[in-house]
C-alpha cells in the first residue's frame, strides 16, 4: 500500500521559516512527479510547488521566491523549505502526485503563521 506522511508543520511568526518533509512508501519514488499542496479553511486545495522526476520545478505565483521544493529519491523524501512566511500561508500542507497517478492523500501537516 502507498502511504504519504507529511511532517514539519507548526506555529511560526510572520517572516519565519519552516521546512516540511514528506515520506512516500510503497512506490518507486524516483519515477513520480511530486508536489506540495495546501488547503486553507474555506478554500480548495491548491498546488503550490511541484518537482518532476526529471528535476524540473514549478511554483504557484503566491509562493515564488519564498518556497523551495526539493527531493531525495534515494531516501524517498520530498521537502518544502518555506521562508518569509505570511499569514496567508496558513493551511494544511499535503504532498502528492501533481497530476495523473494521484495517490491517496495523507493527513497533512498544519502550518499556522501568526501576525
Distance between the termini: 40 Å
Q: Helical residue percent?
A: under 10%
Strand order of the largest sheet: 2-10-9-4-5-6
* Coarse morphology: globular
Please count the beta strands (DSSP E, at least 2 residues each): 10
- Strand composition percent: over 45%
**SSE order:** EEEEEEEEEE
Q: For the report, how would you describe the main beta sheet?
A: 6 strands, mixed
Structural class: mainly beta
Total helical elements: 0
Give the C-alpha Rg: 13 Å
Task: Write up this protein.
The chain is an all-beta fold and 115 residues long. It has strands at residues 3-7, 10-13, 18-25, 34-39, 46-51, 57-59, 67-72, 77-82, 91-96, 109-114. The strands form 2 sheets. The chain has a 6-stranded mixed beta sheet with strand order 2-10-9-4-5-6, with no helix packed on it. A hairpin with a 5-residue loop joins strand 5 and strand 6.
Structure keywords:
single chain; 115 residues; mainly beta; six-stranded mixed β-sheet; 0% helix
